[in-house]
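So, can you check what follows?
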Amino acid sequence: MKKILSLVLLSVFIWGTAFSQDNKNQKDSTSVKVQDTETTAFDSENQDDEGVNTGGFVPGLLHSSADVYSSNTSYTFGIAYFKSRGFDSKYQTIAINGMEMENLVTGRAAYSQWGGLNRVFRWPENVLNLNASTFAFGDIAGSTNYSTRASSYRKQIHANYSLSNRSYNNRFMLTYATGLMKNGWAVAASASTRFGSALSYVDGSYYLGGSYFIAAEKRLNTRHAFNLSVWGAPTKRSLQSNSTQEVYDLTNDHYYNANWGMYNGEKRNARIRSTYEPVFLFTHYYTPDNNRIQLTSNLMATFGRQSTTSLNWANVPDPRPDYYRNLPSYFKDDQMLFNYYTTQWQTNEAFRQIDWDMMYATNQLAAAQGEQSQYIVENRVIDHLQIAGSSNLVANVTDHIKMMAGLDVRGYVQRNYKTINDLLGGSYWLNEDKFADGESPENPYLLYDDLDNIGAHLGVGDKFGYDYAYNLYRENLWGTAKFAYRHFDFHVGASLTTTEMWRTGYMRNGRFPDNSKGNSEQKFFVDGGVKAGVTYKINGRNYLVLNSQFQTQAPSVLDAFISPTTRNDYVSNLVSEKDLVADFSYIMRYPFMRMRLSAFYGKFMDVTDLFSFYHDDYGCFVNYAMTGIDKRNYGFELGIEIPIGSMFTVVAAGTWGDYRYTNRPDVTISADNGYDILGNGKTEYTETVYWKNYHVAGSPQVAATLGLKFSYKYWFVNVSANYFDKIYADINPERRATAARGTLSTESQLYKDLVAQEKMKGQFTLDASIGKNWKVKRNTIGFNVSVTNITNNKNLVTSAWEQRRFDYSEYNANKYPNKYYYALGTTFYVGINYTFN
């Protein structure tokens, strides 16, 4: 509460200072007038045909403008879940009005908060990679800033209808904006709805979403303006399962979905995700009459809920149709059963679906006998509240020096718990852990997730399983200076961040009765970053750019606790991650060709990773905490555009990368029940993971596109051929650890199969789009059609990973085979819009 109060006082001080300084020089006025704009060395508008400024000054690069590489790859490579330079999205800064939108728990911005609002969250300021921005210190994967300032939307009424066979089938969207009116007010609003599943590739799926946005701005005078923007995007959608290649082959369908089955004549999905996290953002803009300073200050509140349903069961077999014991491969030693299961999978659709009727019948029988439900649908709920404030200052100190600085303070609370969504015809549920049953007969309390409510009969809406909260506070101070001279531009910057985190438990767990309820120890991290870059302007057409950045950042709270669902213990040796990234680019900009060629290098040190899985050898769930992980990414990027006449442009872009683990980190393995798992009185042990030089998964490391663009009289046509390669499965570190390797000979085939990392086969896709706009008096009507993956290639793997479970008895890597997601086949999008100006 003290931190929230200090945040509010900080904003009041900043705004009050701006007002008091303003009142010294000029009286308030509600009129709006156009300011004269000064020309500085940072402007690149006044250059002649040779690219040389008429005053002899070589113009700098506008790093927020369209980049020849990113503009031709950001959408095209999306089908393969491509990550630029292999960097995770948590290394990208996403801001709105200069306020960072990061979720402090995940470390990423939640785009779902403004999904469906394409018209108002459009044309952001993109700052590539390591370049300096005016609204944030910037992360190593670049920075993006959206504006929701009401006066920034031109006066219009815009209507749009879209038809697609991707996530949803239909979308209606209406947007209204007044522009800046004579009374100093501006209003903008938008609303949309998305729905449909009939055209989807994934059976048993659906999507239902709505979105709204409203912004109102009041300009008090030429110096002060206030803007309030509110938006939200409530959505409800079903989820697709992942499966092994055996399942895909049996069903002859790379989009097989194990999450649904028929119930009462309708398709019912067990995995439904509902999200609603609205945002309130209040912004103050201050620009003095000299127009050399801009101060933007924000107060933000965001809150809401994300919930995901899932099946749960007690003393009965796993009901999921693709559970490994329901597959033919499980019966490989019994030919009769193998043939039976193979035939059922291939010919009986009901066999490969969830059997809802069976679960209802089982529960009704249990209820008649006074017993608990054997099957339920649970709801995994995440509630959050964030209060944040920020102020960003941009000052043109001289014609050659620009200073940027900012302060960001925020508090974040996320509560995680499970509730009963549906008893499926049963009478009640007990808050007991089926995996703990029988683990320790001498301590029967291990079975109970909530010792304060043992034996309680739970119904729909009641909490069970776990109930805890993450608490985080973060303060960030940053500053950057940019310098522009005749042949050199350069920038330097620094940031300082403090992070405080702790866990609050709301259930007293039977496995850790003294360390599960209440507050944990508080961890405090102090981190910083420095960045620098220089541009050598050979002339107005050729540039050499060198950028670098070093930063440390606190470990994610998701990787900080050994088992957050059960106890307050932190991972041992928890330290901040260190990142060092640099790139070097040659940029060419001629009327006959535009090009960027870049080399990049990134080193990630002291990364922490945490996950849990069922350990077959120990017969219990274990927590797997890896610390000190080092990774290295390097590669090259190339983007080229060559105009052919006035209507055609040839485009080519691609990247080659190599992303690998570079050390052998330690892992601490602990039993989730807190008991001895080695027979020596210890509840945990440490071993080494031998994965040095293995590839880091998550993105193609090779991607390329070759295309042709046509543009004439408001017609446009684009065609591109694309290729993706070096796609690797995410490896299970346990298979490369000391215990799993055992005494196997490194020359044996068993060992080679155990430690091999799967590489997917490279794949091609073909895309095309066409569009046209017409003027109808003062209004505009237009359409656009895009088709992705025209050749209907259904073999492009977007994600692959080794299962965490491992066969310790036979060292059989195929007992729990890899799982996959595949890119969709041919998909289309048709959009029709009408704009009243």
Q: What stands out?
A: The two ends are 47 Å apart (CA to CA). The longest strand covers residues 620-644. The helical segments are 2-25, 245-251, 335-347, 356-368, 738-741, 749-755.
